[in-house]
Amino acid sequence: MNLRKLVCPYDTSLIRSFSRREIAVRVDSPLLVRDAADVVRALGNNLICVILDSTKPLDAAPLQNEWKGVPLALVTASVGKFREVVKKLPLLRELNIRVCLPASNENIRDVRILSSAGVPSTIMINGPEVDWDALSDLMTYSLFGRIPHAPIGPFDYIVHHYDSAPHLCWGAAFFEDPQQFFHIDNKRNVALSREELLAEKFIGCIDEVEKAGSREIENMTDAWKRVFTEKSTCATCAGFKLCLGIITPKNGQAKRCSAFFSEMLEALEDLRLMREKALAEQKTWRL
Amino acid sequence: MPNILLTSRCTRSCPYCFAEKEMIDSPSRIMSWENLIYISDLLKASGDKGVSLLGGEPTLHPDFVDYVLYLADRGLSVNVFTNGIMSPSRLIEIKDHLSGLSTDRLSFVCNLNNPKQTPAPQKHTERIHDFLSVMGPWTQPGFNIYRQDFDIKFIFDFVNRYGMRRSLRLGIAHPVPGTTGMHIRPEEMGKVIERLYSFRPLFDRFRLKFGPDCGFPICKFSNEQLGWFYRLSGGGNSRFGCGPAIDITPDMSVYACFPLSKFYRKSLYEFDTMGQIVEFYSGIHRKIRAEIPGIYPECDGCVQLSENVCSGGGACQLVSRFTKEAAIRLPEIENELEKTGLPV
Predict the structure, then answer these.
(1) A36 touches A47 (CB < 8 A)
(2) Which end of chain B is more exposed for a tag (fewer CB within 10 A), N or C?
(3) pLDDT tens, B81-100?
(4) Quick check: is A114 in a domain?
């Protein structure tokens, strides 16, 4: 069984119990960001990033100079007023930060603003209640923007991994992929998503799960197959390869997410062809 | 420098407004963040360094302050054309958030009307004073000439009182083809320049420069006036031209200046760079001038015109003439006039 990456709370004894693991450590206070990063590294693990769950919007987040060099996912509900954010832009551009936001209409707009201003960000798509047209515009901007801008997740993740996986779980862009991530609490219990961790829906202790495997993991990773056995509308969706039925739209709402994922697949194909063409051109003989 | 139209709403109703038709035809539209980002990207990709914000009254846009900060952060210098009439809360926002920008990154042109010749409500006048008392050093006075007996004495007082930039932007009210708004006719240009020259003692005394907007014909200046004009406008900046001023509307339409807003109106998405847009509308200007070289018969064969020292008046005056009297040889222009509902 391959070792999953761990998303765990900032608990020194818990982190000490792991060795050479890839860890994203979660903190709820800006004061803990630097310490958490240092502890994970000092105890012989590889730091993926520090995840800071901020109760404040970005415009009020107390960003700190000492975060330089720390890969940071700042999870917040909103961006706030640009007139305040603009004061933080010089530091934001210097940090190794990604601002993660839920997929509200306002956030879809603000992610584009941040990206154009040079700040990487991620829109967290967790269900069908999304303005798919706005998201589609954002995806086009992310993939085909006129001039270089900061990456926008999950689109940059999808582009980066598209060729290598027949089925792509883009939830990994925000740590939601049971094939890649375990979410654990400080008692070493494992959940397969952030939502299940918060609901204390555990599949067992990490030591047992990693030794013996788990039926729940198989169920979750194979959930896409049920789309076909249960004759869901997703079974005939042109965008299934990207969505894998994760969005599960309610009756009559499938058209909009379907259009989005189909459009994204087309865009990815275009990008792939452009990349191949560029590679072919590079083969020209030269000294 | 392209112009971004943030909103079609305005707080004023000037008798000479050449934007009025455009404003009436697209009411209550405002520039979205998405479109602003697209335009910023286009400007950056085109190598543009600055942008002007227009309206209507651009400060009415709910995100005005944020838009200015955003554009400045993208490395663009921002020039705002305002009438200075804004709510106290908007003025406080501007003071709190924009007065930290240097005058080479942010500037205003405050279009002023003579309070006696173009009366306005007392409240409007007070708000202009409030605006200038806060942003005077960032602000260049602007004045549009729409009558021969115009009076600009009040501007010298404003400049001194509020520490405004010592350069007056002077525009001529141009005709909007197909409408009957107040404007300066070609035969009135000489008298307008005479009148302007009568203010010379004030310009000299207050050391106020002026920068003429498009459409001043060089032939209507005497040698003495030209010498003064040349010195006052900073030597090399003397302009008698009319090139396409690229306006971009909230719905991403693009055209070459307000008076010609219906004439060859295009979508911004049809172009890849600002250079392409300028080239396209320069081509239209050339076609217009292939029909009529300038606003006077003597423009035909004029050496100043052939050497691009003078454009022979504004292109809008020529198109306005097409709609009234001229026989048009180029079918493309005739078709465009018909398409946009202008009587030929």
Answers:
(1) no
(2) C
(3) 999 999 999 999 999 999 99
(4) yes
Q: Quick check: A94 pLDDT over 90?
A: yes
Tell if the CB–CB gap between A82 and B63 is shorter than 8 Å: yes
Tell me, yes or no, whether A13 lies in a domain. yes
Chain B residue numbers touching A86 (CB-CB < 8 A)? 66, 69-70, 73
pLDDT score for B100: 95
According to CATH, the topology of domain B3-290 is TIM Barrel (3.20.20)
Closest CA of chain A from B66, distance in Å: 5
Which residues in chain A have their CB less than 8 angstroms from residue B66's CB?
Answer: 81-83, 86
Residue in chain A closest to B47 (alpha carbons) equals A147
Residue B8 CA to residue A272 CA, distance in Å, equals 42
Q: How many CB atoms lie within 10 A of CB A17?
A: 13
- For residue B257, is pLDDT > 70? yes
For residues A259 and A132, the answer to whether their CB atoms sit within 8 Å is: yes
DSSP helix/strand/coil, B313:
coil
- Which residues, at least 6 apart from B160, have a Cβ–Cβ distance to it below 8 Å? B206
The verdict on B106 touching A (C-beta cutoff 8 Å) is: no
CB pairs under 8 A between A and B: 41
Q: Is residue A187 assigned to a domain? A: no
Tell me: the pLDDT tens digits for A184-195? 999 999 999 999
Q: Is residue B57 within 8 Å of B83, Cβ to Cβ?
A: yes
Q: What percent of chain B stands above pLDDT 90?
A: 60
Residues of B with Cβ-Cβ distance to A113 under 8 angstroms: 33, 37, 70
A82 with B69: Cβ contact below 8 A = yes
pLDDT of residue B327: 62
Nearest to B37 among A81, A83, A116 (CB): A116
**Nearest residue of A to residue B68, measured between CA atoms:** A83
- Do the chains contact at B45 and A146, CB–CB below 8 Å? yes
Question: A243 or B41: whose pLDDT is higher?
Answer: B41
Question: How far from each other are the two terminal CA atoms of chain A, in whole angstroms?
Answer: 46
How many domains does the structure of chain A reveal?
1
Contact B316, B260 (CB under 8 A): yes
Pairing type for strands A46-53 and A121-124 reads unpaired
Quote the domain boundaries for residue A145. 5-171
Q: Cβ of A112 and B65 within 8 Å?
A: no
Domain residue spans in chain B?
3-290
3-state helix, strand and coil shares in percent for chain B, rounded to the nearest 5: 45, 15, 40
Count of H helices and E strands in chain A? 12, 10
Chain A: nearest CA to B127, how far in angstroms? 24
Residue A215, pLDDT score: 74
Q: How far is B73 from chain A (nearest CA, A)?
A: 8
Does any domain span residue A58?
yes
Neighbours of A62 (CB within 10 A): 10
Say what the pLDDT of residue B233 is: 74
Q: Which ipTM was obtained for this model?
A: 0.89
**What are B303-318's pLDDT values in tens digits?**
998 888 898 888 888 8
Q: Give the pLDDT confidence score for residue A1 in this predicted structure.
A: 55
β-pairing, B3-5 vs A204-205, is unpaired
User: What is the predicted pLDDT for the residue at B288?
Assistant: 86
